[in-house]
Amino acid sequence: MRSRVTMVLAVVAVLLGGVLLVPAAYARLAGNDGSAGGGGGGSVAAPSPTPPPSPTLAAGPVSVNFKGDFYSWALLDRETGKISGSPNMTATSSTESMIKAWIVSDYLRQLGDKEPTAALKKAASSAIRDSNDDAANMVYKAAGGSYSVPAGGQPGPVIKRAISICGLTDTKRGNVTKYEGYWSFTRMSPRDAVRLGDCIADGKAAGPKWTKWVLSEMSKVQGTTAAKDQKLKSGGGRWGIINGLPKSITAQGPVSIKNGWTPLYYDGNWHVNCLAVNDKWSLAVMLRYPIKNGLDYGAQVCASVATQLVTPQPGAALKVPQQPVGKL
Questions:
Q1: Residue 238: CA atoms inside 13 Å, Cβ hemisphere, count?
Q2: How far is 186 from 93, CA to CA, in rounded Å?
Q3: Number of neighbours of residue 284 by Cβ within 10 angstroms
Q4: Contact predicate 73/57, CB 8 Å
Q5: pLDDT means per 10 residues in the chain (328 residues)?
Q6: What pLDDT is recorded for position 53?
Q7: Is residue 229 within 8 Å of residue 109, measured between CB atoms?
Q8: In the prediction, which pLDDT does 286 show?
Q9: Which of 20, 105, 135, 197 has a CA between 20 and 30 Å from the CA of residue 116?
Q10: What phi, psi does 230 have (nearest 5°)?
Q11: Residue 142: in which H helix or E strand, if any?
Q12: What is the CB neighbour count within 10 angstroms for residue 167?
């Protein structure tokens, strides 16, 4: 019996020794033998794979088979301030309802810490969420706006403040004689539109008390391009850039948007503008194309531009650094 016990203990000892021996041998092969320096083989740690960057929008080539009178876009990197875009990103078109985000911001900034009346706060919300024209007119008047045409070709006070506060360089009052005093005919470039988006997002437009409120309202724009959502003086405006963004971007946080769209029969074109901004970028696409092509056409162009600027592109391979070869 004792001999069997002795034999069992001996076998166990050999097995334990082997278990202890394997890690020690592996450590020597990996060059991690516990020595502090020396000639044979230093410690080599395999680098971790480079984590994929968070998806965002960045400057890049954009190709759209556009058929119409005007197509232009611009992208502002809010971290660097750099603006990129189409070669004609300084050319202008009428803003239509896109300017409503500024009208609301301008009015609320002037209030400071005061609260608007319940009627005006409701109007400010409806001007953005529902793109309601009557609501926007009410807020525009409260902000000091007027439809009379200022002398000397200058824009009215509300738009003039947008130019000075947001550093706009291409924006002008409307150029259609009958309507040139109206906010919707304000001429703006995509370059200025992304500056306007940045101005709203960084707090200069609406001020410290109201910026979050305005951005929140812009993130809650509702309604589609469908006929049932389009009314004479209001309409569904949740389309365009927002539809071109993958979930990997929209899941990072709210994207604030304000589109502008009107079929203008004096030139036979839809005037369609898309503006979107988040904490990293501001993007604008501005279009004029034949009315017969419909609103969906413009919405799809805006979405396509956004999708093409996403980086990294969906499905892009993750780059894994090559592991250095250690000395044995």
A1: 13
A2: 8
A3: 30
A4: no
A5: 44 43 39 44 66 89 97 98 98 98 98 98 98 98 93 91 98 92 97 99 98 98 98 97 97 98 96 98 98 98 98 62 36
A6: 78
A7: no
A8: 99
A9: 197
A10: -105, 115
A11: helix 133-142
A12: 13
What is the structure's pLDDT at 37?
43
Decide the pairing of beta strands 83-85 and 260-264: unpaired
Across 178-209, b (16+ Cβ under 10 Å) vs e yields ebbbbbbbbbbbbbbbbbbbbbbbebebbbee
Burial track 239-265 (b if 16+ CB lie within 10 A, e otherwise): bbbbbbbeeebeeeeebbbbbbbbebe
Q: Is 171 left (phi over 0), alpha (psi -120 to 50) or beta?
A: beta
For residues 322 and 313, what is the distance between their CA atoms, to the nearest angstrom? 23
45-67 b/e (C-beta count within 10 Å ≥ 16 → b): eeeeeeeeeebbbeeeebebebe
Identify whether the C-beta of residue 232 lies closer than 8 Å to the C-beta of residue 226: no
Which is nearest to 99 in space by CA: 230, 241, 262? Answer: 262
Residue 313: the pLDDT is 84
The closest alpha carbon to 165, from 109, 124, 230, 119, belongs to 109
The structure tokens listed for 204 are 């200069």
